[in-house]
Amino acid sequence: MSPRLLKKALLRLGFWCLIGVLLLYAVFPFYYAIVTSLKPSSALFEVSYWIHNPDFSNYAAVLHQASFLRAIGNSLVVALCVVTLALFLSLTAAYALGRVKFRGRGTVLMMVLGVSMFPQVAVLSGLFEVIRALGLYNTSWALILSYTIFTLPFTVWVLTTFMGQLPHELEEAAIMDGASPWVTLTRVLLPLLWPALVTTGLLAFIAAWNEFLFALTFTLTDTQRTVPVAIALISGGSPHELPWGLLMAASVLVTVPLVILVLIFQRRIVSGLTAGALKG
Amino acid sequence: MIKLKLDNVNKQLGGARILRDVSLEIAAGEFVVFVGPSGCGKSTLLRLIAGLDSICGGDLLIDGRRVNDLEPRERGVGMVFQSYALYPHMSVYDNISFGLKLAKTEKTSLRERVLKTAQILQLDKLLQRKPKELSGGQRQRVAMGRAMAREPDILLFDEPLSNLDASLRVQMRNEIARLHDRLGSTMIYVTHDQVEAMTLADKIVVLNGGRVEQVGSPRELYERPASRFVAGFLGSPRMNFLPVRLQTPGETSLVNTLVWGITSLPFDSSNLAAGTQLTLGIRPEHVSLKAAEGTAGVVVTAVEYLGSETYVHLDTRLDEPLICRCEVSAGWQAGDRVELLLDIDNLHLFDADGAALSRHPHAIETLPDGVPLRSARASAL
Amino acid sequence: MSVSSTHAPCEELLLTRETPVQRRRVRAAWLFLTPMLLCLALVAAWPLLRTFWFSLTDANLADTGGGTFIGFSNYLFHNGSSWSGILVDPQWWNAVRNTLHFTVVSVGLEVVLGLLVALLLNIKFTGRSLVRALILIPWAIPTIVSAKIWSWMLNDQFGIINHLMLSLGLIDAPLAWTADADLSMWAVIIVDVWKTVPFVTLLMLAALQMLPNDCYEAARVDGIHPLKVFWRVTLPLLMPALLVAAIFRILDSLRVFDVIYVLTSNSSSTMSMSVYARQHLVEFQDVGYGSAASTLLFLVVAVIALLYLYLGRRQLEVRS
Fold first, then answer.
1. Domain ABC transmembrane type-1, which positions (chain A) (predicted)?
2. Which residues of A touch B73 (CB under 8 A)?
3. A53 lies in a domain?
4. From CA B34, how far away is CA B49, in angstroms rounded?
5. Which of B70, B175, C141, C183 has the most beta carbons within 10 angstroms of its beta carbon?
């Protein structure tokens, strides 16, 4: 083998090794969670890298906990409502910001961007008061409302980017046809924005599904908790004896749907994330 | 009958003046083409008429009614966009009927009108297709159908053929001409393509730098351009421009052509001073060539063969060669020495500002009969 | 005022005169914005203002409206013999130090690792899109879940990390990652880096793919060493995107809460400003004091955000 070919082969080998390390780093923790979750509690404390005799008792235990199922249901309701609300509010806003030139547009955009940078804890006490005043404390509505603080700026920003990319002649054609802004938005632009809506909705869904601080603060009882809080509060007999198998089973259960979504919609997610960040 | 009237229309964007004091009258049923180089304001003018852009000053009247503040749908105009701008998610039928639906047209008459429009444009068999399933020419026709469906009195076209390839463009051009004959509606058409302008227009409006340079029939504009700009803009190859100096002003001018020496031309220069720099315009087809003897005449520097004709480039010792349109059979070749014969009736003379000097009405009689300008002294340069 | 020329009014009219279409669109634009603006006013602007107000009162959680105005006493107060208030609370300054420590180290690591991974994934190879999808997994996993998974992996007795390091001979005795005051911050950083590198990588990849190709071809034709190309061409061109990513991450890190709360609970060696503020707000029910801490955190974040906006605008100006 000539030195040049050897060098090339070594480079290739090194490259694939790097890819391997990268994949291991990215995927191993999740894989290890699966491995742990499939162990009976007796085998829990022996480290093993492979799945031997999968044991589903942890999953059975988790799924028998009414509070955990409740939490999944709550999380779903909250996330779906937040997505719907945020998409509806941001769709009209994105039309205004992305397609109409008006004075104050820049200010509104800056405000939206500013809100997305808020530390959540900065509004915690004020929001707590608002929620209690509206009688929403310890309800899903408290979370749906409060989650708009981080989903809305994001969806507005990303949809505005997508909206701005649609050809302006399309809208002028609609104007010539006598369409009002509302008709233009709903009957001409909206049907073309579906891909963007899916992307943005997905990102908002993930953000809402994963939120912890508000969920921890604005809900009190097991029946109202969302998944992240439920998992954080799973505890054993003593603080040092967490039921790790159960915990990992719960973790895997709430994460698998997200992982599947990410794998399916990878391209869309990437375009949404980068549209929000780079083109702003 | 005046269909549309522009009265001192102005448009400004930021600090830039896009249109300056544009006044224009367009008769009902007329086919008017706005033509000019890019950035001359022709598209803006069309958009002002459509109601997509605001008029900054002046009035726009349709049927004698001031429409500055009316919305496009109230103006009775339809528009065909450069990129077609078809609604990608709607079928051809829905594209055409969208405007009618919004106008709350009654169902059966809506259907009737869509079908009629489709029939005129030969779209009957494509009504259920989506735009992406159509060819370029078909999309173009759908765009026209959408503009026509509401039966507007005025149809606006914004460079509608620029996205088509050359052969399709000729075909669609003919279709638009036929459509105009059939519908009899007023059409305003923007293009930068002079062939489209010449072939389609009843009336051409040449715009330059936001001003109207000249309005007239294609023939008027070609044969009697009011300015050097119009003269140079229409015609291919372009009109030849030669610098000349006014020797003796008068009803017929004596000019020093530098190339041919002092020559009498049938233009009225009574109000100009002797010594003024003028420009002589000669269309390539208004020069004929004759073989020169010995070292007389000028040298052919290049010959472009186009099949039906040839363009002969002549070295006149100016910055640009003089181009002359010849028959192929003449067989000129680079290096030949030729004498030039100019068609006096069809020359053009422009003053320093580019405005055409008026032709002396009796020019032909006052010039010695049948004496073409000879190139005899050209070689003496 | 005299009207001297027909053109003069045009300049004034330009600002006020629009077509009916444009007028209608602007009106519609504001109408369309109203629901979003109202919503943000309700959940962001008003609560923020209330937080500012609370920080000047001695309100408590049971009755937030019942607090009385006490000026800046929550921040700093002199009772005759000694100072009290957040600004002299060693716990607060500890939280500030922790937050800054966390931000600097984790953002630094994330940007460097993200850039390296992006460079690796910018090479075309079979299966690239699958790899790109797989490295997104840490990003999609809820922070709480990743904190739990890692705290299991970092478990002092049964954790795989200790097991691995012991068997490789890197350490002699198991490390108490989440309990040891010296190590717990590193545990937090490890988890945060693991979770957010994919995000930085994605931004970097997108930026890399926007770079002009011909620069590289020219460099390759000229035979310039790839490392030199990276330092001289790639990195300067990537700088804007790198800065954006870093700012996003810095703003996120400064308000860090979830990871720390779950991984190390209320341990003072990792307590961040957000954890400190929430502890006072919710656990101690001292809304006034907690709000003061929140306000300070908000101010820090706001200053950095404004700096970013200012720099961003400056950069735009330089470019144009």
1. 72-265
2. 176-178
3. no
4. 12
5. C141
Closest chain B residue to the Cα of A175, Cα to Cα: B72
Is the domain of A269 the same as that of A208? yes
Query: In this complex, how many residue pairs, one in chain A and one in chain B, have their CB atoms less than 8 Å apart?
Result: 54
Interface contact B278, partner A, CB < 8 A? no
* Same domain membership, residue A132 and residue A18: no
Same structural domain, A23 and A151 = no
Place of tokens 């006149």: B316
- B103, closest residue in chain A (CA to CA): A178
pTM of the entire predicted model: 0.84
A76 and A142 housed in the same domain: yes
Peptide bond just before A3 cis, omega within 30 deg: no
Q: Do A124 and C44 touch (CB under 8 A)?
A: no
- CA of C268: how far to CAs of B319, C179, C259, C276, C298, in Å? 85, 11, 14, 9, 21
Quick check: A262 and C277 CB within 8 A? no
Interface test with C, best of B7, B8, B21, B54 (most C CBs within 10 A): B54
A169 and A92 share a domain? yes
Q: Closest CB to B83: pick one of A169, A174, A177.
A: A169
Q: Is the pLDDT at A237 greater than 80, yes or no? A: no
d(CA B339, CA C228): 65
pLDDT digits (tens, 9 = 90+) for B92-131: 999 999 999 998 889 999 999 999 999 999 999 999 999 9
Q: Please give the residue of chain B at the shortest CA–CA distance from A193.
A: B89
Cβ atoms of B189 and B157 within 8 Å: the answer is: yes
Segment A197-228, tens digit of pLDDT:
998 999 899 999 999 999 999 998 888 999 99
Select from A167, A169, A178 the Cβ nearest to the Cβ of B102. A178
The number of distinct structural domains making up chain A is 2
Give domain status of residue A229, yes or no: yes
If you ran DSSP here, which 8-state letter would residue B358 be given? P
**Contacts of B86 by beta carbon, 8 Å cutoff, 6+ apart:** A173, B95, B131, B139, B142, B143, B146
Check: CB of residue B342 under 8 Å from CB of residue B336: no
Q: Write the ipTM.
A: 0.88
Please indicate, yes or no, whether residues A113 and A26 belong to a single structural domain of this protein: no
CA-closest candidate to residue A156, choices A189, A185, A102, A115:
A115
Residues of C in contact with A23 (CB under 8 A): 131, 134-135
- Angstrom CA distances, A224 to A111, A215, C142, stand at 32, 9, 19
In this complex, the residue of A169, A177, A192 whose CB is nearest that of residue B102 is A177
Verify whether the Cβ–Cβ distance C10 to B52 is below 8 Å.
no
Look up the CATH number of the domain holding residue A249. 1.10.3720.10
- Statement: residue B364 has pLDDT above 70: no
Query: CB of C134 within 8 Å of any CB in chain A?
Result: yes
Structural domain contains residue A101: yes
Which domains occur in chain B, in start order? 2-232 (3.40.50.300), 237-380 (2.40.50.100)
Minimal CA separation from A170 to chain B, in Å: 5
Which chains have 3+ CB pairs within 8 A of B? A, C
**Does A59 reside within a domain?**
no
Task: Judge contact between A258 and A72, C-beta under 8 A.
Answer: no
Range of the domain at A109: 65-277
Q: Which positions in chain C touch B56 (Cβ < 8 Å)?
A: 10, 13-14, 17
B53, closest residue in chain C (CA to CA): C19
Report B:52-71 residues touching A (Cβ under 8 A).
52, 71
Domain boundaries, chain C: 8-40, 89-285
Same domain, A19 and A75: no
Measured from the Cβ of residue B263, the count of other Cβ atoms closer than 10 Å reads 20
pLDDT band, very low/low/confident/very high, at B375 (cuts 50, 70, 90): very low
If asked whether residues A140 and A262 sit together in one domain, one would say: yes
